[in-house]
Amino acid sequence: MNHFGYRNGVLHCEDVSLEAIARELGTPAYVYSDATLTRHYQVLAEAFTGRDVLIAYAVKANSNIGVLATLGALGAGADTVSGGEMLRAMEAGIPANRIVFSGVAKTEDEMRLGLERGIYQFNVESMPELHRLSRIAQEMGKRAPIAFRVNPHVEAGGHAHISTGTPETKFGIAWHEADAFYDEASRLPNIDPVGVAVHIGSQIMRVEPLREAWEKVVSLARRLRDRGFSISRVDFGGGLGVPYKDGEDPDSPMLYARQAREVLGNLDVRLMLEPGRLITGNAGVLISRVEYIKERDGRTFVILDAGMNDLMRPALYNAHHDVLPVRTPALGAERRAVDLVGPICESTDRFAKDRPMPPLKEGDLVAFMTAGAYGATLSSQYNSRPLVAEALVRGDACVVVRRRPTFEEMIALERAPDWIVSG
Q1: How far apart are CA 193 and CA 123, in angstroms?
Q2: pLDDT recorded at residue 155
Q3: Alpha carbons 316 and 17: distance in angstroms, whole number
Q4: Which of 5, 340, 360, 381 could form a disulfide with 352 if both were Cys (CB 3.0 to 4.6 A apart)?
């Protein structure tokens, strides 16, 4: 469910028209719905009523401060993969004791930041990382609560580039080496092995592969407890997908929760979840304007002012996004197949090929739907294009959370070498 729909012929986010937002922010612009974010978080939280659970939202999906603040106020924690994401989550009001730090390349400075702020857990992914964390924690006089991210050798995910649970990926420790890793952690100073974690991928439409991974993790947690380890947390990761087009019907959060409860059984641990796309995916859209209609070689190119630097998923994953005109087309308007493309000097800057669309003309606005996850967070300034503006809507109120930078702001961090003398 989302809170985007047509009113009086114009697409709205809650009670605000996307035309009005485009006038205020310019285009391209991302727009997020507070009501949708809130509903998605609450549906997942309510599905686990009666269970001790920390929903650590995956900041990488959408790191907008307004989005993080909205979720933090609802009780969400944060799953982070960099020092910047940790600081961003804390700036948004999410306390350190609800923050998990994941990722395969944690730096010394990032470890020190997490230890200094007292984050909830480090999800450790290698033996060198474990030894580094132990050394730094000892130097600082801190104790580091850890879980090992175990790679269960389960293949899943909506695309090969977002499947993380197989042996050839860089993520996690080998399943068959888990006991040895926990033994080493128990011997190292200033390390508290308190949990077991898993994450096998993103945009997973069915619970079955998730359950297969969860069962391995729970069996490991039970075995470690039998051996005397104080395992008090189990992190099931994220992964449950969202529909991007008609016909896609992912399993529901209720089924996800029921299966997770069954796997946990009577194991007395705190359950941790790392949803990202599930919460923010269809809570956002990207507004873009038609710059030109180009006819060539029997093809029609609808050239938009949004590019792959603003929405990378189609170029990166060949991903589908529904694209709707912001104004409803005339009744009976005939659709025709067009290529939706952007202004970037790359052939991959194409959002859709042979997409049936209603008639469009220069100046028309369109909206990329289900763009609230892995949209703005993957954006760049390629071709010296400014980062996209972002707004959050609640009811009839619209707040610009991130404005579009000026060209002067874009180049303020750069300077030409002193040895260059201009002519």
Answers
A1: 10
A2: 58
A3: 30
A4: 340
3-state class (DSSP) for residue 321: coil
How wide is the angle at C-alpha 111 spanned by C-alphas 109 and 113, nearest 5°? 70
Beta strands, E only, 152-236? 173-174, 191-197, 233-235
Structure tokens at 226: 């039998």
Helices 65-73, 83-91: axis angle to 10 degrees equals 60
| Residue 263 token pair | 């796997």
| For the chain, the helix, strand and coil percentages under 3-state DSSP, each to the nearest 5 | 35, 25, 40
Structure-token pair, residue 368:
């990329």
- Between CA 367 and CA 182 the distance in angstroms is 49
Mean pLDDT of the chain: 93
Cβ proximity of 152 and 200 under 8 Å: yes
Q: Taking a C-beta distance cutoff of 8 angstroms, is the pair 342, 303 a contact?
A: yes
Tokens of 319: 């991903």
Which positions are annotated as active-site residues?
Answer: 345
Q: Which residue's entry shows tokens 């727009």? A: 31
Cβ atoms of 374 and 313 closer than 8 Å: yes
Q: Could you tell me the pTM of the whole model?
A: 0.93
Q: Which helix (H) or strand (E) holds 280?
A: helix 277-280
Please tell me the predicted confidence (pLDDT) of residue 163.
41
Tell me yes or no: is domain 34-279 CATH 3.20.20.10.
yes
Please provide the DSSP assignment of 42-104 as one string. Answer: HHHHHHTTTS-EEEEEEGGG---HHHHHHHHHTT-EEEESSHHHHHHHHHTT--GGGEEE--S
Residue 166, strand partner residues? none
Helix axis angle for 127-140 and 108-117, nearest 10°, is: 50
CA separation for the pair 365, 305 (Å, rounded): 10
Could you state, in order of their start, the residue ranges of all structural domains in the chain?
Answer: 4-31+282-411, 34-279
List, for residues 63-87, the tens digit of each pLDDT value: 999 999 999 999 999 999 999 999 9
pLDDT tens-place string over residues 4-58:
999 999 999 999 999 999 999 999 999 999 999 999 999 999 999 999 999 999 9
Fold of 4-31+282-411: Lyase, Ornithine Decarboxylase; Chain A, domain 1 (2.40.37)
Query: How far is residue 25's CA from residue 387's CA, in Å, rounded to a whole number?
Result: 12
Euclidean distance between CA atoms 19 and 31, whole angstroms: 12
Do 392 and 404 form a contact (C-beta atoms < 8 A)? no
